[in-house]
Amino acid sequence: MKNAELNQRRLDATPRGIGVMCGYYADRAENATLWDVEGNKIIDFAAGIAVLNTGHRHPKVVAAIEQQLKSFTHTAYQIVPYESYVALAERINQRAPIDGPAKTAFFTTGAEAVENAVKIARAHTGRPGVITFGGGFHGRTYMTMALTGKVAPYKLGFGPFPGSVFHGQYPNALYGVSTQDAMNSLERIFKADIEPKQVAAIVLEPVQGEGGFNVAPPEFMQALRALCDEHGILLVADEVQTGFARTGKLFAMEHYAVKADLITMAKSLAGGMPLSGVVGRAEVMDAPAPGGLGGTYGGNPLAVAAAHAVLDVIDEEQLCQRAQRLGQHLVEVLQHARETCPAIADIRAQGSMVAVEFNDPATGKPSPDFTRQVQQKAQQEGLLLLSCGVNGNVIRFLYPLTIPDDQFTEALGILSRALAQ
Asked: Which pTM value belongs to this model?
């Protein structure tokens, strides 16, 4: 089987709206390595878009899924429940940075988690309004498209979107947007668009994913918490991409002195199996009536078994600490590269959630062209990198946290050469 043949079959059989980045097709994978159908070896710094913090096919995750397969694959939790779902909720409740008693509900996709967080917030507050931020990404369903603060490619041709959704500014030091600017943008929303007493929730990513790995400053999170407390608004942290050790903590919100009322999760929760969830204050989570939350596949038993194994692996292999160490090493390599690569405008990191932003040195404007060149050069040497950012001029690093040290060093060598072009 050849990549080119498969590519033609893909073009004939699937719609162009499902954009595909790579011209090669996966055959097998192990930890941080992919092999394509032609036998080429690739170091995977994409990890299924932050899904594989515990790597491809971690033995403990595989064993947990195999064990569950021998019992049952599906009952629909809302019809015939099972202990593993309850036990996973208990584990998340215990560890999530939520004030007071917490409860958790499981779904299938990240967008579903965010959408259900909005439902829960509206049910609890009796209010319609939701505020999110420019550059944020929350999903591809209609509600989450409305929440997402990036038009191309996610919103092109799909409007109109659900109402009562408003976008504030997210702090960005590189482009001169301070915490005060961001808070002022919320005040403008309250004056021009919706009164605060009609706002159910403020939803944000503690570190923006698609937006370019912009890290929320601690003072911004504190100001949001104070604003929410003042007006009875719920603070919702979208941790779909930041969760499960990526930032050096199990949840990115653990880096802050304040707590969210609801946290959404997905991606690395189940090591490649489709599972998402919402955890939050018990009285908030209990707002929807019985039957108001759920989904046929929500909390699928195979995915739940995988998630139990993922939590075990994070603890046993100390992946939070490893995320800090690997991220620090990567930042040092990027800072060294900055001396000879004038296109590097900014390096941002929280644990192993690391990104580098490129601007044209002559004009200071974002340079998606240079970003693509770095990506392509790395790809030629067998390193898979992902771009992001509103202007497509950021490379983000999402390697499995289980990557062997020697392979990590090899990948950083490829990256250094790509930046030195």
From this structure: 0.97
